[in-house]
Every structure is written in structure tokens, then in C-alpha cells.
Amino acid sequence: MDVCNASLPQHLPDLVLDIIFSNLKLSDLYSCMLVCRNWNRAINDGSSEPWKSICRRELTKEFLESDHLSPLKSHKDKIRALCHSWNPDDCSKNIVVENRGFTFVRNLIAESTDMVRTKIGYNTGKHTWEITWIEPLGTVAMIGVSTKDAPLRCDGYEQLLGANKYSWGWNLVGNTLVHNAIPHESSLLFNITILLMALFLTLFSFINILVFIILHH
Predict the structure, then answer these.
(1) 52-103, pLDDT tens digit by residue?
(2) For the chain, give me the number of helices (H) and strands (E)?
(3) 144-159 pLDDT, tens digit each
(4) pTM value?
(5) DSSP 3-state assignment of 15?
(6) Which of 196, 194, 164, 190 shows the shortest CA–CA distance to 179?
(7) SMART domains under this entry (predicted)?
(8) I want to staple 119 with a disulfide (CB 3.0 to 4.6 A). Which of 53, 87, 126, 214 is the partner?
């Protein structure tokens, strides 16, 4: 490193940058990644001290070691998973989001179809989730994509996801793909392919991915 440039913020040693970045909020940390290549490189290291510091502030040691986060290798991946989990403020009143957004439970309310969306919407990129469905699927169980305009609840037992132009839904019980209230019977691979196409080609604003409906008798 050129000594004459050592006083410039973008040329500070990694140790000094780690100390500074470790005291920032997550939103400020993302902003710092846009300042220069050196800062982006220092922050993008998923196991660097800033990400460890955020994990210590945001999550307990027990939760970091839980089944939800322990498979993720870097601290950055753990924070990313937290940011992209289920949204307690964007779900039906009959759904309770638990475990910092990694689990949700539907209250057993008769004649009701309920949905939950993720915390962050998307309009570009490729995104992958691993979902574990613990309870029986029930009458209608769906997963898919939607915009913020898709309804989160309706009366009765309906295919809410895919009920209008604002969402695409894959009914796991009947193995049908639904969009604009029109079902399409097809293969598993075709359903996944169409959902991906809907995700990347939609002209609506932000998309919330992997929207679930849990419906029981």
C-alpha cells in the first residue's frame, strides 16, 4: 500500500476497516459496499468481522447453532437468511410467524384460506429456498410467487395463490399450476419451470417469492 494514500478511507488496512464496519447497521454496511472496490471486497467476505458482529447483535448463540442456521457456513449467509425469511407484517391474521421468521403456523380457523409472504420483494436475480412442510397438506396447499397486490386471505377453501393476475400458484395437492384462476394440469418439472418463468418475466413491481397457503379441513 502506498504510504501517501494510507490516510484515504478507501485505502485503510482491512483490520481498521473491520473495526469501523463492525459498528455499522446492516443497511449502512450495504451502502459501504458501494463506495469503492476495496470496501466491497472487505465486506463481501462472508466470514469477516462485520458479519460476525451483526450476528452477535441480531441473533442469540442458540439460534445461530439451531437447525435453521447451522447448515449455513458464513455469517453473511446467516444474516441473508434472516432478511429473506417470512414476514410477520405481511401475512393473514390467522398466521403466526415464529423463530425470527423461519417458521410460520396457521391457526386452525374453519372456512378460511391464508397466505404469508417473505420480508423482501424481488424484481431481478435468482433466489433459492429450502422449505420443510411439517403438517399434512390439507385440502389446498400452495407455493408460488405473487406481487404485493395479491390478497393474503379469503373466506372458504380456495386456491388463493393464482386466483388473479397478481400471482402464480402451484397446488401441491392436485399438482396443478394456477394463474388468473385458470388451472393447468402438468408435470412437476413443468410446474417448476413455469413458476421460474413467471418470476423472471412478470411486469409487476416487487415479487414476493415462495408464498404459502396452508389449508386444513
Answers:
(1) 999 999 889 889 888 888 888 899 999 989 988 999 999 999 999 998 899 9
(2) 7, 10
(3) 888 889 999 999 988 8
(4) 0.74
(5) helix
(6) 164
(7) FBOX
(8) 87
